[in-house]
Amino acid sequence: MKELKGLHHVSALTADAQENLFFYTEILGMRLVKKTVNQDETSMYHLFYADERGNPGTELTFFEIPQAGRTYEGTHSISQTALRIPDDEALPYWLERFDEFKVAHEGINTVNGRKAISFRDFEGQRLQIVSDETNTGVEGGRPWEKSPVPQNRGIIGLGPIQLTVPRPEKTHYVLTEVMGFSQQGKYKLNSQEVTVFSTGKGGSGAEVHVVENNSLSAERPGRGSVHHVAFRVENEEELQKWVTYIQSRGFANSGLVERYYFRSLYFREPNGILFELATDGPGFEKDEPFEALGEKLSLPPYIENRREEIEAKLKPLATKR
């Protein structure tokens, strides 16, 4: 098998698709590249935000669960999602923007040698803006030119994904001995030890940061929590090799799953975190032209015949507040 190429996407939960759409497009300036539904539960929206065309490694997605309760933060969790920006010069812009829109943030800090701003969305989603000033490795994407955020300040992709676990050695083993990541070093975060792993070309777009924490109980997910993190596989042929391999290692798994815009494999590591391996293609332009991405409700062909039923259960989304 070829090495995993880096981060593919992160999928989180929201209780309010309309407010979510406003926050991630009008405040963070990401592009809504696909408006679809959860293929396993078609009564809920699945919204994809990304760079201008939804390149793998730039996607942050949300499932809407209107009745979702609050998140009780803890271990066994994907505890922070980072979003890359071009350079240090963009950081003051983001501080001003967060203040303008009353977004809770912690100011500019240095995390593992990179300047960053930790912040939260309207539901408490744990996020971070991280500068690419000193970053090398996996390339970022290109912000959409019609974004309310200037292109030279815009989000160019996913940055390091943070996992918080009570038994880090078990997650370390899966990352290195099963998934082929390499350990890059360690740093301290609020007195907790964090171990850095990377894959592929490395850098922010290919890193997982594992935080050891034995003082908290397991997270109870709700609105503002993360459901899973996905990693990039080149194509379906490579993914099928991973399916066979993961099965041979004794992991309970989904087998190959057709998601239309990509193919996937899901499994859980020993601390209970859901990992997905996803192919780079076919991509979001399979059923919409670049200019119109995200403008209509897109349904894969295998549920298109249920469009009337599906649309009847969804509340229409306004693209502007």
Automatic annotation (TrEMBL):
Pfam families to which the protein is assigned, alphabetical: Glyoxalase (PF00903)
Positions of the VOC domain: 6-132, 157-280
Database matches in InterPro entries: Extradiol_RC_dioxygenase, Glyas_Bleomycin-R_OHBP_Dase, Glyas_Fos-R_dOase_dom, VOC_core
SUPFAM superfamilies: Glyoxalase/Bleomycin resistance protein/Dihydroxybiphenyl dioxygenase
Membrane-spanning residues: none
Domain of life, per lineage: Bacteria
Record's protein name: Glyoxalase family protein
Species of provenance: Salipaludibacillus aurantiacus
